[in-house]
Amino acid sequence: MKLVFAVIGIYVVYLLTVTLITIVALWDWFIIPFGLPPIGYAHALGLSIVLNFLIPADAILSKVNDIRKDQGESKWMFPITMGLRPPLTLLFGWIVHSFM
Q1: 1 vs 8: CA distance, rounded Å
Q2: For the chain, first and last CA: distance in Å?
Q3: pLDDT tens digits along 80-94
Q4: Within its chain, how far is the Cα of 26 from the centroid?
Q5: Phi-psi label, residue 35: left if phi above 0, alpha if psi -120 to 50, beta otherwise
Q6: Which residue range(s) make up the domain with 68?
Q7: E strand or H helix at 30, and its extent?
Q8: How many domains does the chain have?
Q9: DSSP character for 99?
Q10: How many angstroms separate the Cα of 64 from the Cα of each of 49, 52, 80, 82?
């Protein structure tokens, strides 16, 4: 049981860290050129909280559950997708930023 909590804890720390790094990098690449000041990790966390408040997770989870039922995906697909989402967003942001 301790191993399960350790794995979940590591996953949460990973997800939080990579999400904050992604928000700060995207802000630096796409928002600072408009004249706004850079943000730190605390501001990135606040921005993430505001966005999570504005975009209800229930709507996202219901769509994911509908897709899961239609395609017969496993219960592990959502955590894997959430873990890959920030690094893939950062990768695509970097690609777009390289053309600017």
Answers
A1: 11
A2: 49
A3: 777 778 888 888 888
A4: 12
A5: left
A6: 2-98
A7: helix 2-30
A8: 1
A9: T
A10: 21, 16, 13, 11
In the chain, the amino acid numbered 65 is N
pLDDT digit string (tens) for the chain, length 100 residues:
888 888 889 988 988 899 899 999 999 999 999 999 999 989 998 888 888 777 766 666 666 666 666 665 666 777 777 777 888 888 888 888 888 7
* Total length of the chain: 100
Dist. CA 65–CA 56, nearest whole Å:
15
In contact, 86 and 22? CB cutoff 8 Å: yes
> Which amino acid, residue 85?
R
- Give the Cα-Cα-Cα angle 40, 43, 46 (nearest 5 degrees): 150
| Dihedral angle of Cα 73, 76, 80, 81, to the nearest 10 degrees | 40
- Residue written as token pair 């999400």: 19
Tokens representing residue 5 in the block: 């909590």
Tell me the C-alpha distance between 95 and 100, whole Å: 9
